[in-house]
Amino acid sequence: MRHMPTLTELMTAFPVHVNEETSLADASRQMEKHHCHHLPVMNHHEVVGLLSRTDLELARQPGHALSDVSELTAGDMCQRDLMRFDLHTRADVVLDRMLDDDLDAVLIMKRDRLAGIFTAQDAVRGFSRWLKKEYLPDDDPEIA
Fold first, then answer.
1. Which comes out higher in pLDDT, residue 30 or 69?
2. Domain total for the chain?
3. Is the CB of residue 117 less than 8 Å from the CB of residue 107?
4. Would you call 72 helix, strand, or coil by DSSP?
5. What's 109's domain CATH number?
6. Structure confidence by residue, pLDDT tens digits, 74-129
7. How many other CB atoms sit within 10 Å of the CB of residue 139?
8. Which residue, 39, 98, 112, 120, is the most exposed by fewest CB within 10 angstroms?
9. Which residue spans within 4-136 are E strands per DSSP?
10. Looking at the domain assignment, is residue 142 inside a domain?
11. Which residues constitute the domain of residue 89?
12. Are 75 and 20 spatial neighbours (Cβ–Cβ below 8 Å)?
């Protein structure tokens, strides 16, 4: 019988994160440095939000309702209504929920602690691996 992957197999474990007080400029630098599109936003050990590149772009738009962009923090701009899943949740359950709710990232939890993040990019990476495993011969030199 085939195995349905869980989030543990597909997520980005122990993601880079920032504190609520982190400036948007510093958060942007962290995204660039670590080549990521999302940063969990923490208050001590508790996840309070998720900051995306889209949130950073929104903050830079002229006429933004909040104060000067140089004064904004990750806590000011992050999304706080977060979808969270246990790390042992089946991947199909999470993917269906992401599609239904038009989400590009969800948080993965182990008990009440952040264990990882699962993004659309993680899903594409997992699908690519599956396609290669399923359809390419084991001795194909293109498989790395």
1. 30
2. 1
3. yes
4. coil
5. 3.10.580.10
6. 999 999 999 999 999 999 999 999 999 999 999 999 998 999 999 999 999 999 99
7. 6
8. 112
9. 12-13, 18-19, 38-43, 46-52, 84-86, 105-110, 113-119
10. no
11. 7-135
12. yes
At 123 the pLDDT is: 96
Contact 30, 139 (CB under 8 A): no
DSSP 3-state of 100: helix
Alpha-carbon span 27 to 75, nearest angstrom: 11
Contact 56, 50 (CB under 8 A): no
144 inside domain: no
Query: What does the mean pLDDT of the chain come to?
Result: 90
Please tell me the distance from the alpha carbon of residue 85 to that of residue 117, in angstroms, as a whole number: 10
**Within-domain flag for 59:** yes
Rounded average pLDDT over 49-71:
79
Domain membership of residue 22 (yes or no) is yes
